[in-house]
Amino acid sequence: MDVQRITLKWGNGVDIPEEGDKVRVDLEVWECDYEQPHSDYKGKRIPEKDQKDQVFIVGGGGTIKGLDAEIQCMSLGGMARLTVPSNLAFGEELNVDVIIEVTLKGINEDDMDEDEDDMDQDKDNMDEDKMDEDEDDIN
User: Fold this and answer.
1) pLDDT in tens, 73-108
2) pTM above threshold 0.90
3) 84 and 19 Cβ atoms separated by less than 8 Å
């Protein structure tokens, strides 16, 4: 299963993050409960995974894979509900599909504070992924 996205609020339609951009988001996370009679499938809230002003580099591995890919389909100020399968979410840590409501609050802002060591690691991860893709293209 791939990530499913429902737009809850359209952003400005202009400012769209790309790989390598630093973004700031708010997240609310629920377990996905397919038995729910309502169409949103929100199950138990997972407050320890909620984040306010989370900062990460797009494509840098600093967040879950499902969010990392889908943030590039949003524009500044937008809000979306993502249904993320466990393999693209928290993996074996939770081993459940999750619903994430994400708001894109900033792109490449000067005052975004993320631990510099984390930023360097995100960039290193992005470079390694790119080298792996390049090797795959050659072979």
Assistant:
1) 999 999 999 999 999 998 888 888 999 999 999 999
2) no
3) no
Q: For residues 121 and 114, what is the distance between their CA atoms, to the nearest angstrom?
A: 11
For 35-53, letters b (16+ CB in 10 Å) and e give: eeeeeebbbeebeebebee
How far is it, in rounded angstroms, from Cα 137 to Cα 101?
A: 35
Residue-wise burial string across 71-99, b where 16 or more C-beta atoms lie within 10 A, e elsewhere = beebbbbbbbbbbbbbebbbeeeeebbbb
Token duo for residue 79 = 């809000």
Residues paired with 106 in a beta bridge: 24
Both tokens of 30, joined, read 């629920």
Residue that is written with structure tokens 């975004």 in the block: 112
Q: How many CB atoms lie within 10 A of CB 24?
A: 20
